[in-house]
Design goal:
The chain has 450 residues and is mainly alpha-helical. It is 76% helix and 0% strand. The chain has one domain: MFS general substrate transporter like domains (Growth Hormone, Chain: A, Up-down Bundle), CATH 1.20.1250.
Length: 450
């Protein structure tokens, strides 16, 4: 089936990656620093990017006011999706930079940009203060933020897996891709609880949400501090020594006839996992607020447990992909998703006790990150080292750019708040189908590195 999407040359290129390159000696310290830097770099990037989801129900009336509550939410989710539009452009620029000048330098610049722009959103004027200018400014900031967000995976999604021993790549993929998202959720939930306590009741709508965005400065500072000690990818160093760094723009190679089909298949798979993540961990804070009517404190505690599970479970799924193959890992998560999504959203909407709500909400949160656990290494194995940063970043960001419209689509298709659970169920099942179909269109990639 892959021959329909991938040219003969591209197929041969992917198959050639079964031969492992000779790896230089890498110290334990370098491995640890690479893993920690990748996880923290990606998680702090996602923290900045995802803060908006935790305050969507609060800032919706302030920046996108409407007499129809679901339209107000749709405005916030539209702003969220807007930033995804610029992510592929950031992936192209920073991926090109990472493939030519190194993963570390690209990550350093991208992480700083994300933090500064996130903090800037905390100073946003509301509609009541400046009228229509408010949503316009907010959308501009989100577009700029998305550009830098798109550049982060070019480094975080390559330098970690390129540094660790081959047998660790599946586990590392789950830790960075899924676990990094879990760390971001823990950070978001923790900051949300702190700000909810510091600015209780109506005060949260005045200063609480602003201070959540202001923490972007702290996230950027921490990311840059960690990255200072990061050592360049050993596989990229080999390319530099061999003077094999590509002269032609890597993004042009990635979208050439040779690799175009690979990018298409990758995007389908990434879209499936990204959509599960956006409607699981992404939509849950809003779901608990507008449907279950939980307090901010209760929501924060559930999300903390959700984030903790997302740190633990994705690395396990990633390791299973190392043991049994990437495709089987995708299929396993997909089958579990079909079972859970078929009833969990409806059951969550009808749950009343905090224990019952948590019991149905947590699997929805965990599934989203479990779905993207094998994705990072799956993408790495589809491209040679010379264009891996660009190919991985473009595939990742294209899939996430399309998937980020999920919350917006669900809100627009829900005339009433009570319509949201059923729309979430059907959209999630569609996402699972893409997660399963994408890997079916290519051969097993485990161990393919060039």
């Amino acid at each position: 089936m892959e021959n329909v999407f991938v040219s003969t040359y591209a197929t041969q290129a992917v198959q050639a990656q079964t031969i492992q390159p000779d790896l230089p000696e890498v110290s334990k310290r370098q491995i640890i620093v690479a893993i920690v830097s990748s996880v923290l770099g990606f998680s702090l990037d996602l923290f900045d990017y995802s803060v908006l989801l935790y305050v969507a129900s609060t800032i919706g009336p302030l920046i996108f006011p409407s007499t129809i509550p679901t339209l107000s939410l749709a405005g916030v989710f539209a702003a969220y999706a807007t930033s995804a539009v610029s992510r592929p452009f950031g992936a192209a620029i920073f991926g090109n930079y990472a493939d030519r000048h190194g993963r570390k330098r690209a990550l350093f610049i991208a992480a700083a940009g994300v933090g500064i722009l996130t903090a800037s959103m905390g100073a946003m004027p509301t509609v009541r203060q400046v009228g229509l200018l408010s949503p316009i400014l907010f959308l501009i900031l989100r577009l700029a933020q998305g550009f830098f967000v798109g550049g982060v995976p070019a480094a975080t999604h390559t330098i970690g897996t390129e540094t660790v021993p081959p047998s660790w790549r599946g586990w590392t993929s789950g830790l960075i891709g899924g676990g990094g998202h879990g760390v971001a959720q823990l950070l978001c939930a923790g900051v949300f609880l702190i700000m909810s306590s510091a600015f209780p009741g109506p005060a949260f709508a005045v200063w609480g949400w602003r201070c959540m965005f202001f923490t972007g400065f702290l996230a950027a500072f921490l990311a840059l501090y960690v990255l200072y000690n990061l050592i360049e990818s050993p596989l990229f160093v080999i390319l530099q020594k061999k003077k094999a760094v590509v002269k032609k723009a890597p993004v042009r190679i990635v979208f050439s006839k040779q690799y175009r089909g690979i990018v298409l298949v990758n995007t389908i798979a990434v879209f499936g996992g990204a959509s599960m993540s956006f409607v699981g961990p992404g939509y849950t804070p809003t779901f608990l607020a507008v449907i279950n009517h939980l307090s901010r404190s209760s929501i924060g505690h559930i999300l903390l447990w959700g984030g903790l599970g997302c740190v633990i479970l994705p690395p396990l799924v990633g390791q299973l992909s190392e043991m049994y193959g990437r495709r089987k890992a995708f299929w396993g998560v997909g089958i579990l998703g079909v079972i859970v999504y078929s009833f969990a959203y409806t059951a969550l909407a009808n749950a009343h006790s905090i224990m019952a709500i948590a019991a149905f909400a947590l699997p929805l949160i965990w599934l989203g990150d479990m779905a993207i656990a094998p994705t990072l290494v799956f993408l790495n194995e589809r491209f040679p080292t010379a264009i891996r940063a660009t190919g991985t970043a473009m595939s990742w960001n294209l899939g996430f750019a399309i998937g980020s419209f999920g919350p917006l689509i669900i809100s627009l298709l829900s005339p009433k708040i009570s319509d949201i659970p059923s729309r979430l169920m059907w959209y999630s099942l569609f996402s699972v189908a893409c997660l399963i179909i994408g890997p079916m269109l290519c051969k097993e990639t485990r161990g393919h590195y060039e």
